[in-house]
Amino acid sequence: MSEIKNIPVHVSIIMDGNGRWAAERGKERVAGHFEGVESVRASVKASVEAGVKYLSLFAFSEENWNRPEAEVMTLMELMLRSMENEIDTFVEQGIRFVVLGNRARLSDKLNAMIDNSMQRTQDGQTLTVIVFLSYSGKWDILQAATRLAKQCAQDPSKLESITPETFSSLLVTADFPDPDLIIRTSGESRLSNYLLWQGAYSEFYFTPVLWPDFRRDEYFKALESYSKRDRRYGKVK
Ligand code: IPE
Ligand code: IPE
Ligand code: MG
User: What is the pLDDT of residue 137?
Assistant: First the structure.
């Protein structure tokens, strides 16, 4: 068990470095994606152990559609298979499973599996696992802005009452708290169009560890680092 005080409510991870992990071993990129699934399992387990309530995972960005078709297909296949394999365990353990992103770009088969998995786990109270799939921050902000524009066209009085909170309620993340901690693996220090709005006051943790090597100990190191941060939100003590 961890002794760490100040556990973040919502931990979000940009899971990066699968391709490099595979390349280091003279393997195909997909071998890194397969091994990365084990790190997802480890992070879910560690989140439950630590008492984190929301774990979100950036699994596939809108930009990732521009990768070679074979890699995209493998990643989608892996998503499908992981849901098939894990959902029973999630139901047993009270883990709620949610997918957020541009669902219109996903196949009917994958969407059906996502709907089924979300429906079966909807009452989970222990941990909520959010997978961002075909997601990008700019896409999210634009879909919210488009919906808001439509509402205002119908009812111009709405223009007077737009606040950060009302805007947040139009983002796909409306039902969930903003991430307290955003972890990125593989040594890249960028957001890659992830939670642009929701990450406004997140703490960041960048580690050189590649995603397939990011397991329990690395996860707890990130929590340890977070526990020492002083979140000021622009104020003075
Ligand atoms: C992260 O690993 C997985 C996805 C983005 C889908 P990468 O596939 O980006 O691995 P690197 O960055 O090429 O090593
Ligand atoms: C970010 O990783 C997206 C995900 C982890 C899903 P990328 O590997 O796609 O990001 P860039 O291209 O290095 O910025
Ligand atoms: Mg990458």
Answer: 99
E strand or H helix that includes residue 18: helix 18-24
- Spatial separation of the C-alpha atoms in residues 194 and 186, rounded to whole Å: 16
131 close to ligand 1 (CB < 6 Angstrom): no
The dihedral through the CA atoms of 121, 42, 199, 136 has a sign that is negative
Q: How confident is the model at residue 177 (pLDDT cuts 50, 70, 90)?
A: very high
Catalytic hit among 64, 102, 111, 193: 64
Q: How many whole angstroms from 85 Cα to the centroid of ligand 2?
A: 25
pLDDT at residue 1 greater than cutoff 60: no
Report residue 62: phi and psi, to 5°.
-55, -35
Any atom of ligand 1 within 6 Å of the Cβ of 15 = yes
Query: What separation in Å is there between the alpha carbon of 99 and the centre of ligand 1?
Result: 19
Residues 209-231 have a mean pLDDT of: 98
Tokens of 51: 């008492």
Q: For the packed helices 69-93 and 29-50, what is the interaxial angle rounded to 10 degrees?
A: 20
Cα torsion angle, 94, 112, 33, 62, sign: negative
Q: Which residues contact 41 (CB under 8 A, 6 or more apart)?
A: 86
CA of 20 to the centre of ligand 1 (A): 8
Give the gyration radius of the chain's Cα atoms: 18
**Which residues lie closer than 8 Å to 211 by C-beta, 6 or more apart?**
15, 16, 17, 18, 21, 32, 36, 39, 185, 186
Catalytic annotation present for 64: yes
* pTM of the model as a whole: 0.98
CB 84 within 8 A of CB 114: no
